[in-house]
Amino acid sequence: MRIGVDSGGTFTDVVIVSESGITIRKVASTPDDPARAIIHALEKMRADEIIHGSTVATNALLERKHSRAGFITQAGFLDILDLGRQSRPDLHALEPEKQKPLIPAEDRFEVQGRIGAGGKRLKPLDLSELSMARHWSLKGGFEAIAVGLLHSTENKEDEEAIRAVLADLDLPVVLSSEVAAEPREWERFTTATAAAVLTPVMKGYLERLAEQVYPAVLRVMDSSGSARPWQHLAAEPVKTVLSGPAGGVVAATMIGAAEASELSKEEELQPCITFDMGGTSTDVCLVGAEARSYQRRSTMIDGLPLAVPMLDVHTVGAGGGSLAWIDPGGALRVGPQSAGAEPGPAAYGKGGREPTVTDAHVVLGRLPADAQLGEQGGLDVDAAKKALEPLAGSLGWSIEKTALGMIEVVNHEMERAIRKVSQERGQDPAATTLISFGGAGALHAVALAQACGIPKVRVPAGAGVYSALGLLMAPWCEQAESVLLKDIPSDWDKDLEEMAQELEQLALSKMSGASSDGVKIDRFLRARHLGQSHDLEFQPGPHPVEDFRRIYEEQFGYRMPDRDVEGVAMRVTVTKERDPEEYRIEECDRPAVKTPVCISEDLGFMSVSRKGQGLVSPGEFLEGPILIEGWTTFSWLPLGVKATVDRRGDLIIDMARQ
Q1: Are 313 and 221 in contact (CB under 8 A)?
Q2: How many CB atoms are located within 10 Å of the residue 116 CB?
Q3: Which residue range(s) make up the domain with 258?
Q4: Does residue 138 sit in the same domain as residue 227?
């Protein structure tokens, strides 16, 4: 028995694969202790393996409910964490508020030693200062220590010396040179501090969970789409900030690979945009194009950069539980605040009183009163209407117009997210397929595809638990990376090959106990034009400079042939793929009935068909307006839109058939 568990902000999704087939569960999350919902969902089950997509690290950073850590850095650079970069995320804010660093000034300590550019020794460490740093760490009451020194990615002797001095204090000591192959000090130091404040939190959580699910083997999804042993990520918690969203991206990638194998040589598989709308947020990602489209070096979490490899998932605060409100200018807004799991939307009957996107769908009939959303038994239509009444009164609108307005506003937010991972990456949305999943996604997918010009929408069978299903498909991948900082030769040379082989052996060493048979090795270079501050990561061939120039032109629209190309870092991944296995979730087979749904402000309510997705046969076309019911989600097809299912039971909505 293998189990995928995705802990979300509103629901915890579970997919169980055993000899008897696939079963799914969707239980209310317990944000105060995510393990509680997991143990409840797995009650009386004896699994062989559990793969977990976790939001513990992300929530700890966003809510600032992390451990207390100290920071040791270069003399004169104590304020790097406060200064950051000069870029302003909100150019029009008259009184911008800069995000506070994870470690305050009073918990930082400076040392005098200095390494210069290129790893050259400029000033030795003072042994008496190291003794003082040890005493400071001992008396500070810290749960972890982060160490960040200038140019340590080129020469980490001083960082290692500081760790050796602190070795007997029984504290996790995080070196910036090991946690991030990033030459820029603010990004690297911030990543090290995040790793330090998260290590005690994540280690404690995973140790408790591993003990509770024993004898099952526990693996955890990391931000790059790898299901790794929990012990690895307890030591590298900063690599789990996109743990949950990565599952759906992996599932979409695997299905894309399966489809590609069925195409003829003349046919080409289109890239896909994954659209994962859950209870508190929406995650989108471009997959199926070149690796550069869906791999990135860092992300901003609550205004702080984390420089670790991850899938290029873009997240916005728009989900089924997102709250509607009116801004000071009188405009209707939705999110990023969310009702979460407690109390949740008003329609859930758990005490929620504020209007959410879910409540808007209930008011419009797109979520029927008897809808079974996991263990959420039925919906309270009157409570949903009551939640929208104050908002409707303030706007001077009917409740139905207010609900339609809320959906339109949240759609615009999600449309911007889709364009960010497509058009802003040089990918035409008209040449993609939208893969919609998450509990709320299929209610919005068609409208978003129409707005972005996307010709086809796929709603997978089991869409509401698709990320949990993706966890079961995820490979085991280990990585090793190192800063390069030198001009790249036109042709791949001996020095680059030696560096790549060293990193390959280091990555393989992290797979102790696993067979090396069938291991896939990939190499990545990060490079930039000499003098630039931003870089691109790509998979190099025999001619890395030309590869970089081509990819740069594809993304930015021009070349700079007179500029030298500087290598920033090299990364090697070692991947052990799972045995190919097709997971099929048998969808809802509830017989067709009629249900009232509000079509638009002009047309009002109409009696439309509501049919189980499992009852649709391949080749049978359904035409909107219609509600297609799945076990964990509903798909809304507006007037004139047509859909069918494929052999997997996935709903295929062809926008060209309107």
Answers
A1: no
A2: 13
A3: 1-85+100-262
A4: yes
